[in-house]
Design a protein that fits this description.
The complex is a heterotrimer of chains A (about 400), B (about 325) and C (about 250). Chain A has about 400 residues and is of the alpha/beta class. Chain A has 14 helices and 14 strands. Chain A folds into two domains: about 220 residues, Rossmann fold (3-Layer(aba) Sandwich), CATH 3.40.50.2300; about 150 residues, Response regulator (Rossmann fold), CATH 3.40.50.2300. In chain C, helix 3 runs parallel beside helix 5, helix 4 crosses helix 5 and helix 6 packs parallel to helix 7. By secondary structure, chain C is an alpha/beta fold. Chain C has a domain of about 120 residues: P-loop containing nucleotide triphosphate hydrolases (Rossmann fold), CATH 3.40.50.300. Classes of the chains: A alpha/beta (about 400), B mainly alpha (about 325), C alpha/beta (about 250). The structure holds adenosine-5'-diphosphate and magnesium ion (MG).
Chain lengths: ~400, ~325, ~250
């Protein structure tokens, strides 16, 4: 009995080793990658991201026959932005669907919930759609994990630097989302103001992401005498903040995190509360703005619009998340091409951690994707951009090394 | 009770005269509180009519607000869309009750076919239907209109008016006005009209009401319809500030629950006062009591609720009604 | 042919036969007592007449027309009103509002102020004018019985079903009630079906008495006949059924 079991076991083991020529998800003519996204629930406005990514992969499959003769299949599943749903969803992708890698999965908490699991199994968890700086800093402990978005503290620091150079006397009020996202942005801002951050920041008002309204916080910020408002919140509270500021007749210089600065939202606010509510607002940027008339002839924007028209006609061009998504898909394809004739997970990680290119057509000119074994920060080049005439207008030079 | 409220109002007025910030925070709190109150009132109407907590109340409000948006997209003017939406909301509320009762009927009928008599638990079944509706409406809104955030026009100008040194938002004042206005209209309806009286009778003692000629099921449906209309008004009033999103009413509904229970779940006046009180207290606490940060808002609201219920288990305005079996 | 007639009505709840072949006639302009020990089926008979229960077999006719296809909310339109053994007033409404709900049952095309006057007059009739604006909740049981009576009367019925109207009343009030029920018959030309445990009251006011026990008719006759009936005396174990006072 025991002997029979041992024989059977040996057979399966040898059988398994004999077939390890290719990593999971790789066949002769296809590559399967996966990701989790909030297709439903409170963050479902990000649900268009994987659709745009799939559109880009389809475009690559149709025009170039995929990567090294393999078509890219992208399986994205809903986790409702809820880590407890991410865990089974990722396990399903890894164990049943046998994906090659998890690409651009969205959200900090969902990402953290499966980071140990994926690293234990040596499954690439890459190009994550979140800007926490620890994705970049903890590369030693989690070699199979790498982020994509610019770091939140990095953006906070850039705001501080700009204020110091342009309006050093500014009295800064901060509306901060009451979670690690908001805290990291605020920490970056304080770092940028150091050692005088106490005297520059006159008031910080925390707000819950689910708060029904932000009038109390905005009234307090206004009463604090602040002349500059920094909005470190996700889209929903950010929009409420813009509208409420207009409602209470407060017109400070506004800075808003790139996370909430989609032209889609800005346009909607202008429509609801008047152009004055948003004009002059400053944010950072690294992706092109398809709504900017000045960039209409840009080849990257044209390609984006072409792919959208053919593969995702229902998508809204003004949604900055879509061109962002294509920039991610481009980066993934770029790394796959460099991952070897028959890509392995290790080869894919090696390619991702040795990226050095300024050719991503969907990113602003001047943004260089640069990584190394010890640099797990993908995007560190950001420029400031100002809202006027219904679109973003980049100005000044790039800030580098935003972490 | 009334004395306590009067004292609170006087305190608010005095505070507002002394401090501009106090005045602004109070008005802003009343505006949000008015929204909580309208939705709480909707919950109370349904509870009184059918002893059901309608968990889909927030989503119904959200969905009808989307309908208003859609009508405006099609070129209908604001007030036209407003009135049409209220009509659609009414029909939707009636339909939801009909659907829920139908589901219970089908279930009982199936059970009877299977030889199981008297399934009972009609109220629970209807509550479960409302929870299903909540999920369904949120999904449907995202599917029909996409989950993208959309702006929504306001009935009132966005510019503020100045009284002394204080800038009041016309939108906030308008919201308070509409919330209170709809409450007064409802009160008059229930107090002084034949149908209003019949609705109250149907909700209180359905059998007795039937035997004095009240069409109880029609009255219950009317109650659900009116509740849906109130929800729609709340949605239309809040949407210009918080924008359209399938999840827009999720937290607001929690506060509305709190307001309804605070006021005494059977008392319409209590629901409205509870909503206004909650809005104002939360704003003032957040402004002047520094440990009440935004993450503590909800716990504080629930704490208030708990204290009120400990002192007065039936809520601020609740009567103890003894029911025989 | 009576104003109301139940013919061979059967109704069972699981194992219990609540009404077993009950036939009952109520002639116009009469007061008919319906008596029997607890659980005899008296309230159930009321519930069948008012369509809250559907009989398994049998027929119920009012004014020559079958009631079995009439929904409960239309019963009052036919001219039948009732009170409840355990009072079913609308607790958070005022006394006047309670009566108004009843008054609306017969108020088609009648202007609201007239309906109101009618409700107030009905309150006057039952002696509750002074309590008109008081909420019903909190009033004594006997008073609530009168509120319910007023609500039933306000719907201007031809047939009034009274389920233990003397419950919660003291001796004097019971006397008064007897006189009142007679006035209803004599002055308002009402027909009354009266369920009551106060035998003295039933025997004094009734023109006819119908006795149920375990869902079955055990006697039917004038008060004097019924009181002498040995089966009736046995059903009450001789205890409750006293000779009428005077
Ligand atoms: N809804 C019901 N379900 C089950 N049994 C009932 C129901 N209504 C009445 N009964 C039964 O029918 C019988 C007659 O009750 P009822 O008419 O209330 O008696 P009475 O009014 O003469 O005291 C009793 O045994 C009672 O338990
Ligand atoms: Mg009885």
């Amino acid at each position: 009995m025991l002997a029979a079991a041992l024989v059977a076991l040996a057979a399966t083991v040898t059988g398994a080793t004999a077939r390890t020529a290719a990593d999971p998800g790789i066949t002769n003519d296809s590559i399967l990658i996966g990701g989790t996204f909030p297709l439903s629930g409170s963050a479902s406005l990000y649900g268009a991201i994987p659709v745009a990514e799939k559109a880009y992969f389809d475009y690559v499959n149709d025009t170039r026959g995929g990567v090294n003769g393999r078509k890219i299949n992208f399986k994205y599943v809903d986790d409702g932005y809820d880590a407890s749903q991410t865990v089974p969803a990722i396990r399903q992708l890894v164990e049943q669907d046998k994906v090659f890698a998890i690409v651009n999965a969205l959200g900090t908490a969902p990402g953290l919930a499966v980071r140990d699991y994926l690293n234990e199994r040596k499954v690439p968890q890459v190009l994550l759609a979140t800007g926490d700086s620890f994705w970049g800093f903890q590369y030693k402990k989690y070699p199979w994990t790498i982020g994509y978005n610019p770091s939140y503290p990095g953006e906070g620091t850039i705001f501080a630097k700009h204020i110091l150079s342009k309006t050093p006397q500014a009295k800064v009020g901060v509306l901060m989302q009451n979670d690690p996202f908001g805290q990291q942005l605020l920490a970056g801002l304080r770092r940028g103001f150091a050692p005088n951050s106490k005297s520059r920041i006159v008031d910080v008002e925390p707000v819950d992401v689910t708060a029904p309204d932000v009038s109390q916080q905005l009234l307090k910020l206004k009463a604090s005498g602040a002349d500059t408002l920094i909005i470190f919140t996700t889209p929903s509270p950010s929009i409420k903040a813009f509208v409420t500021a207009a409602k209470i007749n407060w017109h400070p210089q506004i800075y808003v995190s790139y996370v909430s600065a989609s032209p889609l939202f800005m346009g909607a606010i202008a429509k609801a509360a008047g152009a004055a509510a948003v004009d002059g607002t400053i944010t950072t940027s690294y992706v092109k703005d398809a709504t900017n008339p000045g960039e209409q002839n840009d080849p990257g924007v044209k390609l984006f619009e072409q792919i959208m028209a053919k593969y995702y006609p229902k998508g809204n061009i003004a949604d900055a998340n879509l061109i962002y998504a294509m920039s991610v898909a481009w980066t993934a394809v770029n790394a796959l091409q460099r991952a070897g004739k028959t890509p392995t997970r290790q080869g894919f990680m090696n390619a991702l951690t040795s990226t050095n290119t300024a050719a991503n057509p969907f990113l602003l000119k001047g943004v260089r994707l640069q990584t190394s074994k010890t640099d797990h920060f993908f995007i560190e080049d950001l420029t400031l951009t100002k809202w006027a005439n219904g679109h973003w207008n980049a100005f000044g030079s790039f800030y580098h090394h935003a972490r | 009770m009334v004395l306590l409220l009067a004292a609170a109002c006087v305190a608010l007025v005095i505070g507002s005269l002394v401090s501009d910030q106090f005045a602004e925070q109070t008005v802003a709190g009343l505006a949000t509180g008015g929204i909580f109150g309208s939705l709480a009132l909707a919950l109370v109407l349904i509870y009184r009519a059918t002893e059901v907590i309608n968990f889909a109340q927030g989503q119904m409000a959200m969905f009808t607000t989307y309908i208003a948006w859609q009508l405006m997209q099609w070129g209908i003017g604001y007030w036209g869309a407003f009135v049409l939406t209220l009509g659609i909301a009414f029909a939707g509320g009636v339909a939801l009750l009909a659907f829920a009762l139908g589901a219970v009927f089908v279930r009982d009928w199936t059970f009877e076919r299977m030889g199981i008599k008297q399934a009972g638990g009609g109220v629970i079944a209807v509550v479960i239907v409302t929870i299903g509706m909540l999920i369904l409406l949120e999904g449907a809104a995202a599917w029909i209109w996409s989950p993208e955030i959309k702006s929504f026009p306001s009935a009132f100008p966005t510019r503020p008016i100045r009284v002394g040194g204080v800038a009041f938002s016309i939108q906030d004042l308008g919201t308070i006005g509409v919330a209170l206005g709809s409450v007064v209209v409802l009160w008059v309806f229930f107090q002084f009209t034949k149908v209003g009286l019949a609705m109250r009778a149907a909700a209180l003692r359905p059998f007795a009401a039937r035997l004095v000629g009240v069409r109880v099921n029609a009255m219950l449906a009317l109650g659900w319809g009116l509740a849906a209309v109130l929800g729609a008004i709340a949605g239309l009033m809040i949407a210009p500030t918080i924008f359209l999103q399938p999840t827009m009413m999720d937290t607001i509904l929690i506060y509305a629950f709190a307001a309804a229970v605070l006021g005494g779940i059977e008392s319409p006046a209590g629901a409205v006062v509870g909503g206004l009180a909650l809005g104002v207290v939360l704003n003032l606490l957040g402004t002047y009591v520094h440990f009440v940060t935004s993450e503590l808002r909800l716990p504080v609201a629930l704490g208030m609720l708990l204290i009120v219920l400990l002192i007065k288990p039936t809520g601020l305005f609740g009567h103890r009604v003894v029911r025989k079996v | 042919m009576g104003l109301l007639s139940m013919r061979e009505v059967r109704l069972r709840f699981g194992g219990i036969v609540a009404l077993d072949n009950v036939s009952l006639e109520v002639d116009e302009g009469r007061i008919v007592g319906l008596i029997g020990p607890n659980g005899a089926g008296k309230t159930t008979a009321f519930n069948v007449i008012t369509r809250l229960y559907r009989p398994d077999e049998g027929e119920v006719e009012f004014d020559g027309k079958s009631l079995l296809r009439t929904p409960p909310y239309r019963i009052v339109k036919h001219g039948i009103a009732r009170t409840f053994q355990n009072v079913e007033v609308f607790p958070t409404m005022t006394v006047l509002e309670n009566v108004l709900v009843g008054a609306h049952a017969s108020s088609r095309f009648e202007p609201e102020h007239r309906v109101r006057t009618r409700a107030e007059e009905t309150l006057e009739l039952v002696g509750l004018r002074a309590l008109a604006e008081r909420p019903a909740v909190g009033l004594p049981f006997g008073t609530l019985k009168r509120v319910e009576l007023a609500r039933a009367l306000a719907s201007q019925p031809r047939l009034l079903l009274l389920d233990e109207p003397a419950g919660g009343l003291n001796h004097e009030e019971v006397e008064e009630l007897g006189g009142f029920i007679r006035r209803l018959r004599d002055e308002l030309k009402l027909t009354v079906l009266l369920v009551e445990h106060h035998m003295s009251l039933v025997m004094k006011v009734s023109d006819w008495v119908h006795v149920l026990n375990f869902g079955r008719t055990i006697a039917s006759g004038t008060p004097a006949e019924v009181q002498r009936d040995p089966t009736v005396i046995e059903a009450y174990l001789g205890g409750e059924i006293d000779a009428p006072a005077a």
